[in-house]
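Re-running the complex after MR caught last week's input typo. The corrected sequence lines follow. Everything else is unchanged.
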Amino acid sequence: MTASVLAAGVLEDTIRAFFQGLPIGAGFALVAMSFVLTYKTSGVFNLAFGAQAFISAATYFELHVRRDWPIWSAVLVAVVLVAPLLGLLLERLIFRHVHASSAVAKLVISLGLLVALPELFKLIVDYNREQPFGAVGIIPDGTTIYRLFGRYPVTRDEIAAFVIVVAAAVALAALFRYTRLGLRIRAVVQSPRMTELNGVNADWVSSGSWMLSSFFAGLAGVLLVPTTSSLGTVLEPTGYFPIVISALAAAALGRLVSLPAAMFGGLLLGVVTTQMRTHVPRDNVILAELQGPALPYVMLFAIIVFWPAIRRQVAGADPLLGVSPPPPALAATSRSKGMTIYTRIMALAFFTAVGIWTFGYANNFWISRITHSVIFSIIFLSIVVFTGLGGQIALCQVTFAAIGAFGAMQFAQRWDISVIVGMLAGAAIAAAVGAVLSIPVMRLGGIWLAIATLAFALFFHDVLVKYSWVGGSLFHGRGVPRPEFLGVDFSSRENFLILCVAILVLVGVLVILIRESSTGMALRALRGSETAAESIGVISWRSRVIVFSVSAGIAAIGGGLLAMEERLVGYEANFDPQTGLFWLVIVVVLGTRTVEGGIQAGVAFVIFPELVLHRWLGLDGAWRFVLFGFAAISFARHPEGLLEHGKRRSQAMMQRMFARRQPAMATAGAPAGAGPTTEAEAETGDEP
Amino acid sequence: MSLLVADGITKRFAGITALQDVSIALEEGERVGLIGPNGAGKTTLFNCLLGLLRPDAGSVGFDGQDITRLPVYRRTRLGIGRTFQRVELFSGSSVRDHLLFAHRIRSGTGALWKDVLGLGLPKPAEIERCDALLESLGLGGMGDEPIEALSLGQSRLVEVARALMTQPRVVLLDEPSSGLDRAETDALAETLARIQSEQGFGLLLVEHDVELVASFTERTYVLDFGRLITSGDTPEVMRDPEVRAAYLGDFMAGAQ
Amino acid sequence: MTARLWKMLLGALAVLALVATACGNAGNDDEGAPAPTAAPAPADEPDDEPAPAPEEAPDDEPGDDSAPEPEPEPEEPKDPEHRHTFVPIEGVPGVNDDEIKVTSIVTISNNTLGTNIAAYNDGIEAYFNFINDTGGIYGRELVLDNKRDDQLFQNQPQALAMVEEDDSLAAFVATLLFFGADILNDAGVPTFGWNIHNEFADRRNIFGHIAPSCIGCIHQLFPYIATRVGATKAGIFGYGNSENSKICAEGTRDSIEHYSAEAGGMTVEFFDTSIEFGLAGGVAPQVSEMKDKGVDIIYTCLDLNGMRTIAQELVKQDYRDEVVMYHPNTYNHEFVAANADLFEGDLVFVQFVPFEADIDSSLQEAFFQYTEGIKLEEQTMVGWLNAHLFYEGLLGAGPEFDRASLVDALRTFDDYSHDGLTNAIDFSRQIDLPNNNPDADYEYRCINAVKIVNGDFEQWTGEPGKPWLCWETVREDWHDPEALTFAG
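Corrected-run output:
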């Protein structure tokens, strides 16, 4: 064979891969443009995309597949009606009221919605009886095949997606550039009040732009169904995740604001994907990973870290962007002595009572639940450290917990080393991984940090866990023994619970020490004002890297303990990235700033669904996602968490009763409609 | 050798020249003013000195060392403190906390392992030092107040105190009078003058309140359209007909 | 009780930071260790009930609650004499004078697999109806008393709650992952389940519908299939996200390469274990490569939707007719009917005798009779098989059974094929994973496969009445399989 024949073959392969890549890229572009559209029109980095897409796709499925509606009427309802209506509701009920909040607060709200909306939908449609299996696309005879230039096959579904992507990019670009509405949308995003002064009805424009972006998310939702196998398996918001990472990479190319860049980025990454798979050999592990599961993550990381436009954007950004609204002082710091003693006595009495009940009367099930609460409290303290002290959002705490769990497992299985040592080694590894991960992205902060950490969590999940040096060998299982430590055998549930409580106390004290001393001071300064903090010599990124590492280590300790409690690494049950999103939501709702906020979140995470929802109210456990997800809305108004907020309110009331005026500390009224249950808990719980 | 030197600073933004070959210098313990109307480039120069902006040309020196490329925190640690035009305080913290943060971060006692072992908690001596400074600034007894409870004038003093806790050799004050009425401004100036003479740090005052500059500084630089148009002893500069005609007339008119 | 608890926990939600310290004290105080471990309360519950007349046989009410109302009175299973002997039993969880209660833990909500795993409960209930219609066992009815929802991966707390409740004789488990295995096994609960996990290995009290099988081992069946369909060039897919899928794919590759010469010079032309779950990047380049290399049979270790994506791409590239696909997980009638054109002529692996194959088995007859009107899934049969094993174990344990004697009896079953519906298992020997302990392997390695024709399945392996194709496990030399039935 001559070189020219070979070259012709390679060229032919390359052209073929190019045409194979475009439809895939169209899928990426659809999602990327949806992210960009929402960000551009509302300033919200909307992780709830999957939820919006899911609701349209699932409505379509329900109507067309289950109830045999004709395609056109099902599309009309699912995409043209339901999607914009959802956008309108989200804007009117939620995002309108948080317009002035930081980007991070809005991100947290969108996370809450990602958790809550699909569960609410499933509860209403009763998908928990029968899974939405075997979803279909909206294009009639979508699998009909056409041949480009007589040789490159494409389906009608793919053509439709591609045409819609290009048409939408052109139409939306024209909208923003040439029409008054587009200009108004841009103006409203930048400064709603200014725009109002100029006689534009900002409310209306804001609603309109949410309806538009929600419509687009819904359209993307139904268009992606036939080409994405995970959506055919079960129609779930997580089914969009495989596309979301690549789409985020595409959106990042346009700094989240350029629609044409998102479109071209999406198409480009689609083509890169198929070219890689055509030309790169598969016989080497790393090369195989690079074109397989790892590819989207590598692309996303590379873009975030190396794409100069993102650095420029961050450098030129409003310094307040990515910093949470200034938190008021903790209630405990302004409490009178009498109150403090009273609270402590109550706490002591309460915990003595729980202790007596647990060790005297509880059965193994409840001991196990309580142990879980204690362990999750430890894990959630890692969120208290990073989000509460550091003021940033990371979405990979779950991965650090998994590293701790696998650490304990590996050390015990391979070298028969104490699980405690293994857990601590896991914590050290997690801390190191946290540092390495965060150094390139920590300077970016805010949204980019959240994106990068989510990508890392999914990377660990999709790529690393399967390796035996991480997730263990299939043939030997993931068993983890309970420890024997300092001559004490902790294998019984009771003893192990005592160990966990002791570790919780240690970690709690550690968190308080860090908060009250130099590292915490630097972080509090950073939260208060990054510019001012730097003016007194704080090295912002270094402080955050340190606190990220500490937080990673704490999460890993919790993860290790969880594995010991369950006697195995229940990776899929406990450490799924999706679960991690809910962790953040629940901690953020209940309080990220205090140790007891973390503990309350731990108790609520474990006990609330079992005791309150299931046994007490007889409700489906899925309601917890709905309740806490929607309660995340309160984060914008009460970043200190609902419990701290409630505590402060009741304290202010008590102190008014003692006729001692508090200067300018009165907090605003209850959040409208947000999480009434948790609010009520806070109030009743604090005033026994 | 001057303590703080800006030499031939040029800075452009998207084709607009904000600063054109500006040079200033400040001696140890000196009080220097920098005036000019809005848009003259005062803030840009200020940010170049602090390291928030990097000049396109020229250099910044401190105590004989070229600091043009040093990040903000390194300059702080060398001894450059600052305040802000729009007050930048650490919301959620008490007045004393502001001083404490600055002190600890400047003195670099913040290793994580110390925190973890409980050695990083503030010591009584440090708290005493903070309270002593608050006392001398007239904020005695306010250490526990939440920062949100302070008046603007008090907030500015807290900013000064915070800057002083970093043991600066020079403090850059960015429009300290903005938002204050005459009486408050005078009180602030009086306190500043007293503490400055006690501690002997240099002061660079960026202002458009000419009265404050006139009463407070020894030397003054005047900027306009990104250029240094004149400089010298403050009284002389104030008398300079060109300066009066071009700018001060406006200010005086505005002040009356 | 729960109301009080709830209030206590409401309090917990509102306690303060220093609590952490307080809590340490409370925990370490030991509280004078009041009453060591509380004994499970309901142990002597049967006493409380007014003892019903022991003779009361369920026959008194001729199964009027059994919905399908089978026309011919079902033939009694071939039973030993003592089936209807009633002996009062005390202290055995879930057993009273009328009923033998069991619990199931099934992935119902959040099921990411998509297929209807809940059909497992249908299978159990159908079998219990069958037994109860023919007089129950030991004067008692079999009752699936508590259907717990695994809610995807929550089977460990469910198992623990079941053990603590102590009101079920046995557990039936069909979950996507099985984290609760040790809880059940350590508590001595006889556990039956859908064996798709390694947790079914190494645990004496746990019994799958099939025995623990060798994962990724060399097996003649892969090259054999190719010789049957006249294929010589294999393409193999596995998910790069899953170790399981990778090991399975590697086993297929190694098997083909091992028997390459004997199987007509068969080769592995294409091998990709790096495709990502969800296939967001498609498989177009891979299919092009297979087409270039002339692959004529595709083996996969994928779920059914992954298969569909590959099939669609084959159709798109006009290559579908040249290649046969071998499906490990596609025995789903609804799915195949909906994708008839995509899968025409493909082969699907089934773990038991498919509904399409007719064998001489009264158990199979009863299955069809008692599942009439129910949508049949793979898991319906699995539930049925598990329930049958449970019943036969009870027979083996005798009228004075308890959990331990039930397990002991089951572990004596050394040639057990669920009346021919599965490969014969030696429960006394097949406990460990054969990968770790070769002695624990099946005597015969067998396959049962169906072919997709017009969106439906047709029996493909074996011959009429003998649906299995089997190789003796000890014989590693290449030889033709034997058509077998384990019925009778």
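None of the earlier attempt is carried over here. The domain at 13-126+151-289 of chain A is CATH 1.10.3470 (ABC transporter involved in vitamin B12 uptake, BtuC). The longest strand of chain A covers residues 145-148.
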